Amino acid sequence: MDVVELLRGHDVMVDGTAEGTGTTRDIPCDGALERARWWQAHIVEVVTGLPPDARPGAQPRPDFDPDRHSLAAREAAKARELAESGVGEASARTVRRKRQRYQALGLAGLVDGRAGRREAPGARLDARVVDAVREIVLSHRGPGPVSVERVRAQLLVQLAGQAAGDDVPVPSRSALRRLCSQFTGRLPQETPAPGPGVGDRVHLDVLSLPGLNQVTDGRHQLGLLFALDEASGVLLTAVACAGPEPVYGPALLARMCVPADQRANWISPWSSGQPGSASPSTAASGAPVIRPRTLVVDRAAAPGMAALRDACARRGIHVRSAAQLTPQDRGRVERVMTAAAGRFAAYLFSPAGRPAREAEWQVDRVQELLDVWLEKGWLREALPTGAGFPRTPLERYEDLTAHVGRVPTPLPSEEFRDLLNISWRVVGPSGLRLGGCAYNAPALHALRRPPTPGPERRPLEVRWDPYDLRQVWLRTGDEEWLVVPAAASRTALPAAGSDAGFIEERSEAPRLNRHVRNHPPELPEAARLAYHAQLQLRVACVVSAADRIDDVRLLNRYAAGPRYGVLLHGQPGTGKTSALLEARRRCTAQSHHRHGTQAPGDRAVPVVYVHLPPATSPRLLLVELARSFGLALRGSPATSQWAHRVAAAMKDARTDLVLVDEAQHLHGPGWSDSAVTETVNYLCDRIPATFVFAGIGSPGSLTSAVTGAQHRRLVPVQLTDMPAGEDWCRVLAEAEAALQLRAHEPGTLTGLAGLLHERTGGNTGRLTFLLRTAAVRAIQDGSERLTTALLSGLPIPG
């Protein structure tokens, strides 16, 4: 009688003591046997329609009824059921193979064949190798297990003496490890991989304060920005911010690399006896100094991140995305940061946090408590890590630096000063006002503006930390600085980088019309050098291209059908990148005006700028866009999946404009023109943003954007060199009006219009380089003017 027909009979009962044709007596692993019995219940249901523990008279489930479904259909239904329950290896083919082995061997056919394998140590190796390894391992008397390298070295020596010319195959390193473990019962000692050192990886992340929303009914959203050294667990700096999304900036780097108790007097040493200097903290606080070598960020598109990246690049600090780390490394860091946030929250709700509670959780009061807790609490509390390391971050820092034999040094005072925000202020009768706060000290008496009419005093340079407004630094001479403390209590910290007066902008790229700003007279030489090195020209074709981008963006905003993009093409130096930056400035300003002030936690990204590397395929273009929104770059999803993820991210971020520079690189090896065309058309049609591509000449596969209908979604805009004429003279006149040279004679540049056009060929890029270089040279040699000899002798790029 067929076994299937026998099992389907209602009057047949399977005796649990029978094990079929196979046997499980030789199975040494109870886990393998339990796994086999688990599979047996599912296979019996596939074969008979009912599980083994079904009650008498039970009916098969609809998907497993043998009268309604074939055996293959029942196997597929079981595979779907197991996949939905989380069993990843249960495909229909696996269920069929298990069923066949069960029908042939019984329960033993469902047992993993690897569980019953019993093999003598080194059964597949040469007997001389096995004997030599046994002797080496059992004769080891040192502490701990013997290393594989030592076993291999001694094995080669013994075999060289025993074999006498006979070739004996030496096992691999992994085979030696298995052989040693069979002799000793434990694996040989592995040389541990070197972990990160102090400052090798510093993580920047933002966390919320646990339990605060329940107390304040959501009225205050306070976040904590932590800079954590992965190796030691030291928090280099911590900033309390109003909202979960602070503004990043170079001042964060300054706070990381200088001791917290010495930042106030780092530019102007307190021992110099200058009046008005803030009193230093007591020495010997033990706060460690760490200078990061790699900065790991989790918010690539956060406000101010571009300025922070630029400051890191100038100091040789690599900025890395957190998505590039392994889940184990990132998980360990997140656990430490979560523990730090929880401990500080407990500190706030303890009696020590009474000032913050009485001040109704004002940010400045929370920041003051955070500074105290960072020095006296976190550094001396045990880390939430495993055993084998010193207990506290301070002990781990001391242990790691002692092992290396050197201690990191803080930033020099000049670099610390340059990383701070800069403003220009006139000292009034009540002192200085900056960021809504007043600053005053007796040392400012000689610098105050006279109340009676008289000559205006020149503005002075002020350096300030946007994350700590307890003091500012005022330059009174070339190398003379005053530390001016806050004169009144403040209600909240202002947004980093915001100021009502003149502030040096720290943006990703300068604006086109920066030269029309009202700079204070008699700027210091360093400030004038920096100003002229960034001098911008306002060119008519660049402004026209930016206007064209605005027109297309406005049409796309109200378009019900396909959207259109813009293609800027031309020779190098014609202003394509300048047009992109001008379009970005306009879009950002209009977005802020349309949506109002950005609320805390708002993740809106109105503009995305992407600079393509060489040989960029359409898939890599989508990956670059995904990286701009901080999407995790894990796995290998298809190009269509990347497109869907980028579209969803742009929709959530309310992105209105996407700028793609160096579009001539969008033609990687192996990609046809049609693949690039289809990708560009998809981006312009489906993604809710206006795409602008800028490339040199006729950018490779995008040639049809100018001549044909393949790229029907792109509007071509060509930028060319300027001819000699009225527009050329107007550009020179505006550039001359923007110069800050003391002895320069007006009308010089317009009088040399022919010479400048002959040298540059009307190329705005060459003209900009020539004027910047000449102005910097004039300041350095003291001539303070642009002359015919200077403009004729300076080399310019081809």
From TrEMBL:
Ranges of residues in domain Integrase catalytic: 192-401
Coiled-coil segments on the chain, per record: none
PROSITE patterns: INTEGRASE
First and last residue of the signal peptide: none
Official protein name in the record: AAA family ATPase
Organism: Streptomyces sp. 900105755
